[in-house]
Amino acid sequence: MTCPDELTISFITGLSVIRRPFGLTLKEISTPMDVLTFSPEPEQYAWTFGGAAPVHRIKPGTVLRLWSDDAFAGRLRDVTDLPSSALDARYLNPQTGPFHVEGAEPGDTLVLHFVEMTPARSWGASATVPFFGGLTSTDRTATLQDALPERTWIYQVDSGRGTVTFEAQGGELTLELPLAPMLGTVGVAPALGEVRTSLVPDKFGGNMDTPEMRAGSTCYLGVNVTGALFSLGDGHYRQGEGESCGTAVEGAMNTTLIVDLVKGGAPTWPRIENDDYLMVVGSSRPLEDAWRAGQVDAVLWLQELVGLDKLDAYQLLSQISEVPIANVVDTNYSVVTKLAKNLLPPTQVHDGIHRHLRDQATSISAG
Amino acid sequence: MTCPDELTISFITGLSVIRRPFGLTLKEISTPMDVLTFSPEPEQYAWTFGGAAPVHRIKPGTVLRLWSDDAFAGRLRDVTDLPSSALDARYLNPQTGPFHVEGAEPGDTLVLHFVEMTPARSWGASATVPFFGGLTSTDRTATLQDALPERTWIYQVDSGRGTVTFEAQGGELTLELPLAPMLGTVGVAPALGEVRTSLVPDKFGGNMDTPEMRAGSTCYLGVNVTGALFSLGDGHYRQGEGESCGTAVEGAMNTTLIVDLVKGGAPTWPRIENDDYLMVVGSSRPLEDAWRAGQVDAVLWLQELVGLDKLDAYQLLSQISEVPIANVVDTNYSVVTKLAKNLLPPTQVHDGIHRHLRDQATSISAG
Amino acid sequence: MTCPDELTISFITGLSVIRRPFGLTLKEISTPMDVLTFSPEPEQYAWTFGGAAPVHRIKPGTVLRLWSDDAFAGRLRDVTDLPSSALDARYLNPQTGPFHVEGAEPGDTLVLHFVEMTPARSWGASATVPFFGGLTSTDRTATLQDALPERTWIYQVDSGRGTVTFEAQGGELTLELPLAPMLGTVGVAPALGEVRTSLVPDKFGGNMDTPEMRAGSTCYLGVNVTGALFSLGDGHYRQGEGESCGTAVEGAMNTTLIVDLVKGGAPTWPRIENDDYLMVVGSSRPLEDAWRAGQVDAVLWLQELVGLDKLDAYQLLSQISEVPIANVVDTNYSVVTKLAKNLLPPTQVHDGIHRHLRDQATSISAG
Amino acid sequence: MTCPDELTISFITGLSVIRRPFGLTLKEISTPMDVLTFSPEPEQYAWTFGGAAPVHRIKPGTVLRLWSDDAFAGRLRDVTDLPSSALDARYLNPQTGPFHVEGAEPGDTLVLHFVEMTPARSWGASATVPFFGGLTSTDRTATLQDALPERTWIYQVDSGRGTVTFEAQGGELTLELPLAPMLGTVGVAPALGEVRTSLVPDKFGGNMDTPEMRAGSTCYLGVNVTGALFSLGDGHYRQGEGESCGTAVEGAMNTTLIVDLVKGGAPTWPRIENDDYLMVVGSSRPLEDAWRAGQVDAVLWLQELVGLDKLDAYQLLSQISEVPIANVVDTNYSVVTKLAKNLLPPTQVHDGIHRHLRDQATSISAG
Fold it and tell me: Fewer CB near the last or first residue (10 Å), C or N of chain C?
């Protein structure tokens, strides 16, 4: 596999991006969009949020076409590649980035609209890793039991059929499962001068491992440092909610996204919007605290958007929120609170920026 | 409101129920089905799982048409009825039952197929209760803060439109939300001679508060005592996942179900099957333990059903399970692990009893 | 071993007990005290709190001399007796009781002063039990790992030296450890009509497993049902804090205690007083909730006793409380909050009832 | 208050330090010891573990005489200084350091023996901080309740009497409490290139907030980066176990310590030894995971030191460990597992380095 650092800047026709500081109203005028294509060499991989020098400076409105390696840094390629020998704990979950977004300052809202995610390899890998995962003891949920055995699974991708194939290692079963690409990890540099490994999800985003981070979604992240310094990686060709064994169908990914910026309005926890839902991702331990954090932020969001007082927003949330677990395996656990738009009064998040970027995405895909 | 104890035993035509101990194969012969209609007087309400005398003895195969009061025992009927004055902590979450199922012995599997759930009142109620709920401190997640204010909401039911209406109390907003009837509480007498309040979910079922307990679902519960002694209640006209404020749109419910029995095969945790999913409900604290318990049971179930070894089942679950939270407010928290049937090889749970009861249900509804 | 049901009622000379309902002031007049000696036959063991008929009715002021079996019901007597074959999950942690205390009504405070605890056998037993304990996965902190191996240890008691002897099973080491008798389980019938296995600690007391429940301590329990219906058992010849492997040096125990009653004043969580400390035992999951519950109750207690407002009491507690963990292995975990009396202004709990019972105890021991 | 950066290097007579890599045996020869006195200017404060340039390079065997500011960076000096106005979330818990220890490499064991801790001011401060602390909801244990009120307490230090004085703000009570100086925060640079705020405790040490970190204790920390880069701060004039309100009697501290190094042997979690105990500090969430992590490490330590197999070590730990909670307020919670030396066979940790440093300390104090 070649991962050349092909850097291309081109112009395509798109829609202007609405940013509140400039008081623009939505206009469907065609303007050229910056497009940056970037595929890092292994020595350019970032292993942390914060603490890595930016690979590029970009303007809000830029389209990024990015390649990211898988969470194993491509080291599990065959069922005979076992984690304890093939992996290095210091080099897990490589990120593509960070990108310095011009004009981003602490308190602003970074907007990432995912246009497309497609497998960059014809296979994905998953594994049980000793003392890592949800249904084993770990270094913290520590017990005196022996580790579960290691095992590696390789899933073949059939892009035509839109599937990945599970092959049992202890038996004969094979099963085709729908391809459902997503990014496990999207984040910015943390607050308080911290540098966090890319294995961690928290307020800065990071390794949230939610299937909601897929094409068609817009992610809102609070900016903590000048330039935001966001990066992404950890492509999953599909993943169950919870990511039970600790690893999804991990795969290198080609991701197209539009980067935008809203001045101010930084959310406390990562928020995601798609055509159907408003979502908040809380990450903490124990799992109920991940839930509480996201739920309280969703109540605040409801109050702002719909004009309810706190108790009414709490009540409404109680009857409408959908709450899938994202991960119960990472350094923090993650839970998503989802509010269906069709149950709410018509409302606009950041002047309808998701809809606007969604429209732009169409022109990009077409272009 | 009238809650007459209308006890009617009648016979309708249905399909014979398959029970493994008798080695029957599936036959579509028409047989008469016992039908029992029961609506308890308030003094017949059960407040516990275990510890209450059975209200009826029934045979496997019986159709029950039950009325159950709401979790407030009908005491919140107006927005001026506030929990601290209107409710009595000793009389919450009344159950209809228990029913003694003939032939049920410890280790057997009680099978409850829900045919129909319809609101038995034209309104439902919800409330914030001091120091109860998910986004407040409680008697256990104890803090020194003041309680959130009490507030009661009354939702009008429009059966024709299939909606309940949220009316903000601190503002003007009203919202029609889809009616989505479910039972918060379904359970049997616990093991070890315990008697548990109906507010608790655990291995015996109980107050799991999952929207999956709805018409079309079949619930499998492990039997702990002779006769199983199951009861049900806590109708919800709709509920968000997590039941954040601690109360759903609580409402009296008319429930039609078919009761059946499989000898042996008692699941560790409550299992639910519908046309599309196999599900396990784990209940514990912290929330990750509710998840772990249900996930491990789902791995075991996958092994049995699909013939995988433990690690392969763990891997497959990791890529396919959907995991909505059920409740983060009760004495134990509950999480549902769902496995989509269409992602699995064709498989039969208890010789296809769900499909069989589903077919019977059609004849009942028609009848 | 013989466990005859030797019931003896005798009179000894003691100090009158101060009970607030009768408005007595402390007088050191000699009055006869009821003494009841009771050692249950195995068929008289209670396995639950609530749900068992009282073995005796006693008056406040009664001295009880009780024998209790060990938590294994005496079934582990040799290192070759392994839990999975020797134990029956339905018959664990037998209690001596319950005792109906005359005059006790819901809302009252049961007062149990422990005069003496001495081993009733020359050996104690401990064991690792599959999927039970703190450093193994369990039925709730469920993983897919194999269980730790079973092993049984027998500790010889040397009452003269005041020791129990640890003998390594996988090596040669023997170690004499100080004998430190305590009761793992002391409780009353629960509220809400519940019946709980004796393995559970909660607001009603139960299986708290704190070394503070020893001779010289006075335990205050809130009464939930007429007669209180308290029982005790689960003697430990010694135990580390946390009871890590799930079992202490379990042993049959002879316990002498004085039973008393304060009308009203029921504490939310079990409280313990000894000459040096005021203590609250919180029990819940996760462990921080056990801590929070006990701490909040200790803040309330400080407010009442010392006359501080809530924030001042919180501040003072923050600088003085000692907080040993009691158990991290039972159905609920338990944490003790301790306040050293010598750091507080002089104060009296229930008119100095602990000091009074302590004085009585001296006369009993002497008598 | 004066905080001059008085850097003094002098020589005093001490005992040579035993370091295993050089195969020395214990000899009581007098050798000169490097002494470094350092008091940082505010602009030299470190706010993170990792990510800060070393203030000094020192050799193993160096005596450090350090001044550290309090966790509020000295901004709360009067009861009218309230956290929300006086504090800046970016500048909390300043550390003195980091120090680069020559020869320290990843996998080594940094040894810090605390000789003396004395208050560097005549007053200490404590406060309730909105949504911070153990008995309030927080940003993660998030609820919709209002914050507890802010309040600041100033404690006067009486070094002669050895006390700090609590003064109630909502009433009249004053209480003298024993002075018990300790450091809340001691740590090294983290692994995996992380930079963590000084508010966090984890495997690298940090903000563990255990009263065991006091004069007479030797702390063992695993080295993650060349030079170890340790720092310390967060002096407490006294603290209850758990640090319930989130802040102890916070005070600037003069600390004398001897820094030493053992090649290899890095413990997974911070370990502490004093004359009476071997201790492990686990830090995680939920609280039971902090406990589990420390307990499993203590079992491993017992195995190594005493020569027991895993199950025997687990059993022995179960009967002897003392387990005080350290903090339930920081980003991770901390629990200490303590093993009394007098219950164990005679054993030497790192060839008796604690005893050796203890002897050296005597000569320093005398000198």
Answer: N
- Number of CB atoms found within 10 A of residue A22's CB: 8
Which residues, numbered 210 to 229 in chain C, qualify as contacts with chain D under a Cβ-Cβ cut-off of 8 Å?
none
Q: How far is A135 from chain B (nearest CA, A)?
A: 6
**Model pLDDT for residues A244-259, shown as the tens digit of each residue:** 999 999 999 999 999 9
Residue C364 is predicted with a pLDDT of 82
Radius of gyration of chain A (CA): 20
- Closest by CA to D168, choosing from C301, C344, C277, is C344
CA count, 13 A, side-chain hemisphere, B225: 21
Mean pLDDT, residues B361-367 taken together: 74
* Residue C1 belongs to a domain: no
Per-residue confidence band for B30, with pLDDT thresholds at 50, 70 and 90: very low
Distance CA D305, CA D314 (A): 13
Asked if A26 has any chain B CB less than 8 Å from its own CB, the reply is no
Q: CA B282, CA B293: separation in Å to the nearest integer? A: 5
Element (H, E) at C276: none
* Structure token digits, residue C43: 């068929």
pLDDT tens readout for residues A178-187: 999 999 999 9
pLDDT 10s digits, C257-309 = 999 999 999 999 999 999 999 999 999 999 999 999 999 999 999 999 999 99
The beta strands (E) that lie in A181-229 are given as 182-187, 196-197, 201-202, 205-206, 218-222
Total count of domains within chain C: 1
Q: Is residue A285 part of a domain?
A: yes
Give the Cα separation of A276 and A338 in Å (integer).
9
Q: What letter would DSSP give residue C293?
A: H
- C-alpha D324/C-alpha C324 separation (Å) is 4
Across-strand partners of C182? C236
| A/B interface, count of CB pairs below 8 Å | 204
| Per-residue exposure over C164-182, b if at least 16 CB sit within 10 Å of its own CB, e if not | bbbbbbeeebebebebbbb
CB within 8 Å: B240 and A126 = no
The full length of chain A comes to: 367
| 3 state DSSP class of A325 | strand
Angstroms from B53 CA to nearest CA on chain C: 14
Say if CB D83 and CB D152 are below 8 A apart.
yes
Contact D147 B143 (CB under 8 A): no
Query: Which residue is associated with the tokens 């984040």?
Result: A187
Task: Give the three-state DSSP class for B219.
Answer: strand
CATH of the domain at B307: 2.60.120.580
Contact B136 D148 (CB under 8 A): no
DSSP C80-99: T--HHHH--TTS-S-EEEEE
Label the pairing between strands A174-178 and A8-15.
unpaired
Q: Which of A200, A183, A181, A152 is nearest to A47 (CA)?
A: A200
Residue in C26, C102, C37 with CA at minimum distance from that of residue C359: C26
Give every residue of chain A whose pLDDT is below 50, as ranges. 1-30, 367
Q: What pLDDT score does B163 carry?
A: 98
Q: How confident is the model at residue C26 (pLDDT cuts 50, 70, 90)?
A: very low
Q: pLDDT-based confidence at C31, cuts 50/70/90? A: low
Say if C144 is an interface residue toward chain A (CB within 8 Å). yes
A2 in a structural domain: no
CA atoms of C257 and A122, how far apart (whole Å) = 74
C51 and chain B in contact, CB less than 8 A? yes
pLDDT-based confidence at residue C363 (cuts at 50, 70, 90): confident
Give the pLDDT confidence score for residue B33 in this predicted structure: 84
CA distance C233 to C187: 9
Q: Is D136 on the interface with B (CB under 8 A)?
A: yes
Q: What is the pTM of this model?
A: 0.94
Query: Within a 10 A sphere around the Cβ of C322, how many other Cβ atoms?
Result: 17
